[in-house]
Amino acid sequence: MTRDRAHTIANVMIASAGVAAAYVVLRTPPLRRLAFQAVRVWLGASVPAYLAAETRRAWVQSGRTA
């Protein structure tokens, strides 16, 4: 088996496992609620942090001082 073939098979297996896990989570109400809460927390923390970092980076690149 070649290296490329092994990577392709591994990628297909990982994608299949992801699809199966998503199906189980979406079809099970308690897991679905948990997943949506986790997404809300993740977005609530990461999006504002990203926006703050980008705003700071843009400010520094503009050469302005506070």
Tell me about this structure.
The chain is mainly α and about 70 residues long. It has one domain. About 90% of the residues lie in helices and about 0% in strands. Helix 1 crosses helix 2. The protein is flat, with a radius of gyration of 20 Å. The termini are far apart. The mean pLDDT is about 95.
Compact summary:
By secondary structure, the chain is mostly helical.
Core attributes:
66 residues; 89% helix; mainly alpha
- Strand portion: under 5%
Say how many strands there are. 0
Query: What are the secondary-structure elements, in order, as H or E?
Result: HH
* Total individual domains: 1
Overall helicity: over 70%
Average pLDDT, rounded to a whole number, is 93
> Mind telling me the C-alpha Rg?
20 Å
Q: Runs with pLDDT <50, length 5+? A: none
Any idea what the shape is? flat
Major β-sheet, in short? none
Secondary structure category: mainly alpha
Q: How far is it from the N-terminal to the C-terminal residue, by CA?
A: 60 Å
